[in-house]
Design a protein that fits this description.
Nuclear Transport Factor 2, Chain: A, 134 residues, 30% helix, seven-stranded mixed β-sheet
Length: 134
């Protein structure tokens, strides 16, 4: 097993416990969250940004969601990237609307073995409608 896959397993284990400091410890200071061509979709927990402070804000925004199911289906990795399909069921607390989907997480690593890029690939329309109560 690659070290990067072990790192992602540790991140997901920390996520399951709500241990944000342990997650942040695996991230580069300048981590790009929702990197690439991600645009602000109006969904607070999918807002693009940079740095650990931004990621702390992500977890703060995620409090608006009740995660019913979060199951990594596979961890696929090489020397720089790990891709993880996630079987997800999440309910937006304010609206009571639920999203069920398989989303993809893409993790990139720097030379020091820290996560320097992360991206959710999701059905953003389904999440937006749940967030808006539609």
């Amino acid at each position: 097993m690659s070290q990067h896959i072990a790192t992602i397993q540790a991140i997901y284990a920390a996520f399951a416990k709500g241990d944000v400091p342990s997650i942040l410890a695996h991230l580069a200071e300048d981590v790009q969250w929702e990197w690439g061509w991600a645009q602000d979709s109006g969904i607070p927990w999918y807002k693009p940004g940079k740095g650990r402070k931004h990621v702390e804000g992500f977890f703060g925004a995620l409090r608006q969601v009740e995660i019913k199911k979060f199951q990594p289906l596979a961890l696929l990795g090489d020397n720089q990237w790990v891709a993880v399909p996630i079987d997800l069921e999440a309910k937006v607390v304010a609206t009571g609307r639920t999203v069920k989907e398989v989303e993809m997480h893409l993790w990139g690593f720097n030379e020091a073995g820290k996560v320097n890029k992360f991206r959710h690939y999701v059905d953003s329309l389904a999440h937006f409608k749940a967030f808006k109560g539609q």
